[in-house]
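step=encode ok
step=design start
structure_in=
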């Protein structure tokens, strides 16, 4: 009989988690589509263009990166997956976006948590951004060199 209770708990627990995630992701996707229709996304993502250009992410990656910065990796991942399925991002772009978000995600939430515990949140925020931008820029350059090298070596 305990197996039946375990199965019931697993099914109800999993179902509730899926519903919670859907309650977050679906409104976010609707919000993004409304912003797209009103052309507000172009304005928001254009603010990020100098940074994303520096780290080698195309303009199509600005929205997933912005959502990951603001809402966190789990929320940004929905937009990364959507952009990938639409063919807007290459595997290299997806890697660079994920790499950046691993180092620097949930800027507002994390910053508020740091401030709440008395940390020097401005210093932490600036260092997170500098480290993420520097490392992703380096990785982008490495990818570029590999691409150039593989093209020149295949032509010989």
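sequence_out=
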């Amino acid at each position: 009989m305990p197996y039946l209770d375990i199965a019931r708990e697993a099914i109800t627990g999993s179902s509730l988690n899926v519903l919670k995630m859907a309650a977050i992701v679906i409104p976010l996707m609707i919000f993004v589509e409304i912003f797209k229709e009103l052309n507000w996304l172009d304005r928001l993502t254009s603010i990020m263009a100098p940074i994303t250009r520096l780290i080698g992410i195309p303009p199509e990656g600005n929205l997933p990166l912005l959502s990951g910065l603001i809402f966190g990796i789990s929320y940004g991942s929905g937009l990364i997956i959507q952009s990938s399925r639409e063919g807007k991002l290459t595997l290299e772009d997806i890697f660079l976006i994920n790499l950046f978000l691993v180092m620097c995600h949930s800027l507002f939430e994390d910053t508020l948590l740091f401030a709440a515990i008395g940390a020097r949140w401005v210093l932490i925020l600036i260092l997170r951004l500098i480290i993420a931008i520097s490392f992703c820029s380096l990785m982008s350059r490495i990818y570029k060199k590999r691409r150039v090298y593989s093209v020149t070596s295949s032509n010989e």
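step=design ok
step=annotate ok -> The two ends are 70 Å apart (CA to CA).
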